[in-house]
């Protein structure tokens, strides 16, 4: 058990500090590889590596590809003519206009066009000061990109699923706090909170949900590039996020009934039920195997209970309601 805990702590430490090791060790290896292969400008390899290390594995791989393609094209377009072209603003402008227009006609990605333009700028200037710069730039870019790909996929891959899980846990705690505060507001008959503050809190939670979904999408996209990722873990987090989304939708629908004038007995029941849900929510992340949505409060007529397929559409409708763009007929709570 202790050995397993040490292993987890070690893995967590490497994940938190991965950017340090990828940048440092990768730069050293890229520089030495370029130098051993005869480059007179070995700094170009670690420069490429640093640029290629992005937030996610997918982003790193895409940028590495675009960087290589754009640099090689730029070098081929200008390398043969660089020494015969005067280094002036007009010469640079004409070279950039012709090359970028050609790339646009060929429907190249904007990032590739950006890299083509950079290569033309640097080759045009440095080739006249340092012979062989153009070919060193092409070769060292390939070296730096290759080293970057190895580091982000083999040695220090980013665990996107764990990031999604962390954002989910933060959402759960914030959600539980809102539910608990709502229970207190119902108990105190605090209509200011129920009519104004709660609305803003629900908008904040909705924005968190959107970011969680974006993070999970990145995690799913990175699965095919991550040699160590467990698809089952990503699927588990996806299911948990879906439950939280459903819980948010149901609570938002539930919140529509809370502006009703309750009797003291009803307020006490509502407050107790809401606080019970808040407790369940705070404990919910600990149930990693069994996922279940919070139960709805008894004696409440909900407007809708939404299924998984309708969740995304209903979230958009709820957001319109929260922003005041949709008029919703609020059902009243049943009397005891």
UniProtKB/TrEMBL annotation:
Entry keyword Hydrolase: no
One Pfam family matching this protein: FUSC_2
TM helices/strands, residue ranges: 118-135, 141-159
Compartments, as annotated in UniProt: Cell membrane
Coiled-coil intervals: none
Annotated Integral membrane bound transporter domain residues: 29-151
Keywords attached to this entry: Cell membrane, Membrane, Transmembrane, Transmembrane helix
Membrane topology category: Multi-pass membrane protein
Presence of keyword Transmembrane helix: yes
Main location: membrane
Family as reported in the entry's similarity comment: Belongs to the YccS/YhfK family.
Name this protein carries in UniProt: FUSC family protein
Species of the source: Alicyclobacillus dauci
């Amino acid at each position: 058990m202790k050995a397993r805990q040490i292993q987890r702590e070690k893995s967590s430490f490497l994940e938190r500090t991965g950017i340090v090791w990828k940048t440092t060790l990768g730069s050293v290896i890229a520089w030495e590889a370029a130098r051993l292969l005869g480059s007179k400008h070995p700094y170009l390899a670690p420069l490429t590596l640093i640029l290629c290390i992005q937030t996610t594995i997918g982003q790193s791989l895409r940028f590495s590809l675009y960087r290589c393609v754009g640099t090689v094209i730029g070098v081929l377009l200008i390398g043969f003519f660089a020494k015969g072209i005067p280094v002036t603003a007009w010469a640079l402008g004409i070279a950039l206009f012709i090359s970028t227009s050609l790339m646009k006609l060929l429907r190249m990605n904007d990032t590739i066009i950006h890299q083509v333009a950079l290569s033309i700028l640097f080759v045009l200037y440095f080739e006249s000061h340092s012979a062989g710069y153009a070919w060193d730039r092409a070769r060292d870019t390939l070296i730096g990109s290759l080293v970057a790909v190895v580091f982000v996929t083999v040695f220090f891959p980013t665990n996107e699923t764990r990031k999604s899980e962390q954002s989910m846990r933060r959402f759960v705690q914030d959600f539980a706090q809102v539910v608990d505060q709502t229970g207190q507001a119902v108990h105190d008959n605090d209509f200011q909170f129920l009519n104004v503050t709660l609305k803003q809190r629900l908008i904040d939670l909705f924005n968190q949900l959107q970011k969680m979904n974006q993070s999970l999408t990145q995690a799913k996209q990175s699965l095919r590039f991550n040699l160590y990722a467990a698809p089952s873990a990503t699927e588990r987090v996806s299911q948990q996020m879906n439950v939280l989304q459903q819980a948010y939708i149901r609570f938002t629908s539930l919140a529509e009934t809370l502006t009703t004038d309750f009797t003291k007995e009803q307020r006490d029941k509502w407050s107790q039920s809401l606080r019970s849900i808040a407790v369940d929510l705070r404990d919910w992340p600990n149930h990693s195997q069994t996922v279940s949505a919070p139960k709805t409060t008894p004696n409440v007529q909900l407007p809708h209970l939404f299924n998984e397929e309708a969740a995304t559409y209903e979230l958009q409708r709820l957001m319109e309601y929260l922003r005041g763009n949709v008029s919703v007929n609020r059902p009243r709570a049943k009397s005891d």
